[in-house]
Design goal:
Two copies of one chain form a homodimer. Chain A is an alpha+beta fold and 110 residues long. Helices cover 67% and strands 13% of the residues of chain A. The first copy, chain A, contains five helices and three strands. A three-stranded antiparallel beta sheet of chain A has the order 1-3-2. In chain A, a hairpin with a 2-residue loop joins β2 and β3. In chain A, α1 packs antiparallel against α4. The longest helix of chain A is centred in the last third of the chain and has 31 residues. Chain A is elongated and about 70 Å long. Chain A starts with a helix and ends with a helix.
Chain lengths: 110, 110
């Protein structure tokens, strides 16, 4: 439970930055090298590497170096962890609305 | 597009804190007063209010004061905005995998 929460801290923190979301967006279309990821971002390569470190710490991205090229790829299971947390809250809210609707239908005068 | 991105910054930042996720979790079961929200949290009321301000700034929570009681409720559309962003990235990744699978099926010797 604790690990689960800690990882959500890191995942949502990683997604809270627009540059990091651009990286995730690019990687959702397939693996890419660090220099490919840097291309659309108006920042230095070290700044891109720092964003990648935040993404790797969250588990959203992993990378491996072959020769001189570091290739990054997305970890879809980690993306799903965040999606599922939100989806469960939304479902819980819809369930609350359903119960409220039932109550109002049974007590039309209130 | 800019507004959309800025709001995702605030939404994901709001969700990156465990106390704020506990608040969202509670509110997904129905509206609650500030003191009800504070009960399960091991922190001062001003600290809870600060977390609520972050949640309100993101649009995830809205509140209204009637008499002496401030009641908070969740904004499900804002929750969906974040869910949709993640879901689109996951779908994009699955589409990439499908294309890769098709390619490999057509080129079995590679």
């Amino acid at each position: 439970m604790l690990n689960y929460n800690v990882s959500l801290d890191f995942i949502f923190h990683a997604l809270a930055d627009p540059a990091r979301r651009i990286i995730v967006e690019r990687l959702s279309q397939g693996p890419a090298s660090v220099s490919e990821l840097a291309k659309p971002l108006a920042m230095s390569l070290p700044a891109v590497v720092q964003h990648l470190q935040v993404l790797e710490a969250s588990g959203l991205v992993r990378s491996e170096k072959v020769g001189r090229v570091r290739t990054c790829r997305i970890e879809p299971a980690v993306l799903s962890t965040a999606e599922q947390w939100i989806s469960e809250r939304r479902t819980s809210w819809e369930h609350h609305l359903d119960k409220l609707g039932d109550y109002l239908a049974e007590h039309p005068d209130e």
